[in-house]
Amino acid sequence: MIVADKKPIEEIIEEIKGHEKILILGCNECVTVCEAGGKKEVGILASALRMYFLNQGREVKIDEETLERQCDHEYLEEIRDVMDQYDAVVSLACGVGVQFMAEKYHTTPIYPGVNTCFLGATEKRGLWTERCQACGQCILARTGGICPVSRCAKRILNGPCGGSDHGKCEINKEIDCAWQLIIDRLKALNSLDDYEQLSPLKDWSTDRAGGPRKVVREDVQE
Amino acid sequence: MCSEVKSVEGESGNFEVSLVNHPRYIDPVKCTACGECARHCPVTAVNQYNMKMDDRRATYIEYAQAVPLAFAIDTDVCIGCGLCENICLANAIQYDDKERETTIKVGSVVMSVGSRGFDPSGLDYLGYGKYPNVVTSEEFERILSASGPYFGHLMRPLDREEPKSIAWLQCVGSRDINRCGNGYCSSVCCMYAVKESMIAKEHAHGDLDCAIFNMDIRTFGKDYEKYYLRARDKEQVRFVKARVHTITEIAETGDLVLEYADETGVMKKETFNMVVLSIGLQVQPNVAELAKRLDVKLDKYNFVNNKSLAPATTSRPGIYACGVLQGPKDIPGSVTEAGAAACLAGVDLVESRGTEISKVEIPEEIDVIGQDPRLGVFVCNCGINIGGIVDVPAVKDYAATLPYVVYTDENLFTCSQDTQDKIKEKIIEHKLNRVIVASCSPKTHAQMFMETLEACGLNKYLFEMANIRNQNSWIHSKDPEAATKKAKDLVRMAVSRAVTLHPLHEKKIPVVSKALVIGGGVAGMNAALSLADQGFPVVLVEKNEKLGGMANRLTVTIEGEDVKTYLDGLIQRVTSHPQIQVLNQSLIVGFSGFQGNFTTEVLVGPGMYERKINHGVVILATGATEYRPKEFLYEESKNVVTQLELAKRLQEKGALDLNRVVMIQCVGSRNEENPNCSRICCQSAIKNAIHIKKLQPDAQIFILYRDIRTYGSLEDYYTEARKLGVIFVRYESEDPPGVESSEEGVIVTFKDHILDRSLRVSADLLVLSAGMVAEDTEELASIVKLARNSEGYFMEAHVKLRPVDMATEGVFVCGTAHSPSLLGESISQALAAASRATTFLCRPFLTLSAVTARVDTDLCASCLICVRSCPYSVPKINEEGLSEIDIALCHGCGVCAAECPAKAIELNWYEDVQIMSKVDALLEGVM
């Protein structure tokens, strides 16, 4: 899941304070699950903004809407009929949703209402941690199912480095050394031999290094 | 109420009870507890409830939670001025009320006359009654209470100053055959002293030194030891092992000097600002007479204390007793025993069950769907409780201006019966389809008004209340104008919500009147028998081949009752009972359903074929076992045994070959791994020590202990053991005895505090008082979804008030599956669990509240937050990947509805729009 975090309300106010008619737009996917941009958060942010403008003595229209997803045309089309009622939108979707909205509604400013953080998992309620950096060339098969690209601070492919200290990373004592985890897991899988295999240079062109990426699947294209 | 039993004639199943009904002078049926009479009463009387520390009026109610909630006149002080009669709008005062005698016919009788704290006035060395700052624990409870004489402020009586140091003296009126003759332990004082010290620290504004002077700290109840450790280690409550022999007052300051000898015999003096005497429990002073009138035998302390293996019984069949009247005990013990008494009384009444219940006819529901809202608003004066402050006619007129309101009225007492009839009339006359009552708390009155709606065919959830008394007139009595304005606001909010209400229907689910009992030990068998004797079929699942559980290893109780004889009889009754099916060598492998309708899958041995059992309730009686010591050379030396092994040996081989025996207490209890006290081991050791002394008077016996916890009447056996010459030596947990093997037996080294030196004792036998360990129920707990504490004992729904209920409705727990307990206590719990189970089984169906959560699956994001946040583990993600909430399991707490990030969950009757409409109405015109 894409994990996002709440944006400080002061920041949002700073962006939208010049507008009169604002739509707060939630997304019922990842940001709902990580409790940053679902219908409930839309309601909370909308109420807070109403209170703010009321205190300022200003009459600002703040409406609420939550779409199933903001990364699909069809769902974004659902609000086309009402979009002319607003002079700005605060999207609580991830960066993808914000941009897709902006592309679709070219003349309406779309502001981000959350900070999109990473691809991660819910360790427990209120704690999300990163697991994937979408490098485009998955090597998990060789690393005991633990990703050194996302979980090693240096992204090294033949670790650990000299900064591994009692299983922790030198940059922060709370971060596990990914390579320690890999070794432990390979041990448990009885395949420490894999560890002996040197990883060749990784082709980073499928990562961000190659510029914006796309996936083309002709087999499913209509 | 206000009645006393004069006599009980007849026999079990057919008693005639003569009662003396004392006059109250205020009719409890008419009295609405408005309190006007007391506010106008000119006479002051001493308030007994606050332990004489403040005053009340001659017209009074003992305390705010009294049942019935009705005032009475104390004619000892009443001057007959007539003011209360003039002021009472309910016409409840009846000065001519007289003492009457009534006779009732009943099948069983339960005595639960309670206890009274020991009066320490006679113990001159304590200075109680002489020094104002020496108070009893009962008085201190009232001092700490917000409704007490000092409104909860920690103050000492002399100067109303906050004390900086308080000493508690334990065992005042308990464990004292020298000065007061109460040889028993009162069981509760250690725990309440610890509690009082903790609360006193909470109430104190600065540092407060709390010292508890004790002989032994007896925190033997479930998880009590953890509380004691918290007080000692975290809150720095001091525990001093000493019995204070003299208290003197420093006249200038009112402080108190305590004199005592410490453990090494050194005389000490210490000064405290205040002293609390932890007074013991004893029976009410008139109990001896009552027992005589009822022909019930009492023990030497005037407790009923009937047979240990027949709890809650008395010497007279058909009459039962519970609570402290049976023997000193704490709240959970009393509530449990009350359940046991109810069970026994109920078994006697099986034939006549349900014959005296009157049936309420409910007319067919009027269909209001599609109708415009038609609201009726009934504003209550509550005598002058509301009307004296709030301008009720103005509120009524205001209500009439609100949208959809078609009828308004005001009543003197909206809760009275004649007003109910009037409301019914008006509902029909004006075709009302929503009703609002503006009066008092829905907590106490909503149910009654909802029944009124139901009685004239209106769905009971089309009702709303505005609390213009507790939340308004009572607290704004000094500002009638503001109170009237607020009443209008509250009514406007209520009207606004009422418009949004729609009918809700309660689901009726049939109850399978069959019980499943898990565990065939003494507790499980007793529970099964009590239910079967009431005609309910029972399936008893036992994992072993043989019934009896841990009791198979027991020999005699400390009171001398033979366990084997008892157990054989019990097994015989269970296996031959036509309503009980025993499945031994069986294992629970699946569990589903809800209260009244459970299905359990059992693998039945020895063939291990699968069986599905449908049942309405579950009773958990999985038991516990003796801890297998890892310490003190157990299993290394043949001369080291546990108490159970010793008891067996004494029965088989006697004790003639034993010259010296050492026993070590708290083995596997009160340590880091198992912080709790195992409750039974002190009495096991003493029981066995007495047994050895009787068989072989010359044998020398040392019992090395940390605190001797022979609570209640068990204390007598502790006294007896000391008289027989058993030597008790205390050791500290940090300095446990040393044990080494020798040719003749074992050598035990320990420190004697009085001699202040180490002793080396060579013994024939070292006996370890091994604690109790819960049976391994991890798998069962995960299958049935049951909460256990960290030591593996099942967690009851409420420690004090629901001691045998589990949090899941329809599931009960008893015996050592709950916590370590003696045989009699296990039986008591078993009967209580059966009694609670009966309340489900005797009903053909259960009516579930309509206030449950429901999921709008179109909105559900399957985020699992409802699953994670529900305190009862009800929501599930179903096969379609969406949240599903079983309304039969839902408690209606609303946590999921509040937490759902997709706003996909609504709580019926508290839907978002219904709550927001109130907020909007309140802020109307403001925002």
Task: Explain what you see.
- The complex is a heterodimer of chains A (222) and B (927).
- By secondary structure, chain A is of the alpha/beta class.
- Chain A folds into 2 domains: 2-118, Rossmann fold; 133-201, no CATH class.
- Helices cover 31% and strands 23% of the residues of chain A.
- Chain A contains 9 helices and 9 strands.
- Chain A has a 4-stranded parallel sheet with strand order 3-2-4-5, sandwiched between helices. A 3-stranded antiparallel sheet of chain A has the order 1-6-7.
- In chain A, a hairpin with a 2-residue loop joins strand 8 (168-169) and strand 9 (172-176).
- With 927 residues, chain B is an alpha/beta fold.
- Helices cover 26% and strands 25% of the residues of chain B.
- In chain B, strand 34 (660-667), helix 16 and strand 35 (700-705) form a beta-alpha-beta unit.
- Chain B is globular, with a radius of gyration of 31 Å.
- In chain B, the strands form 17 sheets. In chain B, strands 10-17-11-12-13 form a 5-stranded parallel sheet. Chain B has a 5-stranded parallel sheet with strand order 27-26-25-31-44, covered by helices on one side.
- At the A-B interface, helix 3 of A face helix 20 of B.
Brief account:
The complex is a heterodimer of chains A (about 220) and B (about 950). Chain A is an alpha/beta fold and about 220 residues long. Helices cover about 30% and strands about 25% of the residues of chain A.
How are the elements arranged and paired?
The complex is a heterodimer of chains A (about 220) and B (about 950).
Chain A: E1 2-6, H1 9-16, E2 21-27, H2 30-33, H3 39-55, E3 61-67, H4 73-77, H5 80-83, E4 88-91, H6 95-104, E5 110-112, E6 114-124, E7 127-132, H7 148-151, E8 168-169, E9 172-176, H8 178-188, H9 192-196
Parallel strand pairs in A: 2-3, 2-4, 4-5
Antiparallel strand pairs in A: 1-6, 6-7, 8-9
Chain B: E1 3-11, E2 14-21, H1 36-40, E3 44-46, E4 55-57, E5 59-60, E6 72-73, H2 83-87, E7 100-106, E8 109-111, E9 115-117, E10 134-136, H3 137-144, E11 165-172, H4 189-203, E12 209-214, H5 224-234, E13 238-241, E14 246-249, E15 256-261, E16 267-272, E17 274-279, E18 281-283, H6 287-294, E19 319-321, H7 331-348, E20 375-380, H8 392-400, E21 405-411, H9 417-429, E22 434-439, H10 442-455, E23 463-467, H11 469-473, H12 480-500, E24 508-510, E25 515-518, H13 522-532, E26 538-541, H14 563-576, E27 580-583, E28 587-594, E29 597-604, E30 609-615, E31 617-620, E32 624-626, E33 640-642, H15 643-653, E34 660-667, H16 681-695, E35 700-705, H17 715-723, E36 727-730, E37 738-741, E38 746-752, E39 757-763, E40 765-770, E41 772-774, H18 778-784, E42 796-798, E43 802-806, E44 811-813, H19 823-841, E45 845-847, E46 853-855, H20 865-869, E47 876-877, E48 883-884, H21 895-899, E49 905-907, H22 912-923
Parallel strand pairs in B: 8-19, 10-17, 11-12, 11-17, 12-13, 20-21, 20-22, 22-23, 25-26, 25-31, 26-27, 31-44, 33-40, 34-35, 34-40, 35-36
Antiparallel strand pairs in B: 1-2, 2-7, 3-4, 5-6, 9-18, 14-15, 15-16, 24-45, 28-29, 29-30, 32-41, 37-38, 38-39, 42-43, 46-49, 47-48
Helix pairs in contact in B: 3-4, 4-5, 7-19, 8-12, 9-10, 12-22, 13-14, 13-19, 15-16, 16-17
